[in-house]
């Protein structure tokens, strides 16, 4: 009985550790310059890759269009837009995808990882990069 209880405890511990480190769920973004909360992005997995979609706009016009976005996203509503695409899992990080910044329409190579209740979202433009910290919602 002790062996079964120990095994059950270890399984629960490993599952809870995995759940705590999962990047999937809803995250609150923060404006780099003002520190104001901007949007809620839902991070999800599809066919083994990570994606992120804006599900709520907290600042600005909730019906705003992405005027500067490239391709088929140009002039589309920002609310509901997929801004993180095709990230692949590599260890504890997600890499080799793209991150779109709707404010300026720029596409960045990306890397995402979780640190506790924070999601580290890094966009690269050549050798330059910037990391945003997003906060867990649920």
From TrEMBL:
Cleaved signal peptide residues: 1-19
InterPro entries listed in its UniProt record: DUF2147
Keywords annotated in UniProt: Signal
Transmembrane regions: none
Domain DUF2147, first and last residues per copy: 25-135
Protein name per its UniProtKB record: DUF2147 domain-containing protein
Species annotation: Persicobacter diffluens
The organism's taxonomic lineage, starting at the top: Bacteria, Pseudomonadati, Bacteroidota, Cytophagia, Cytophagales
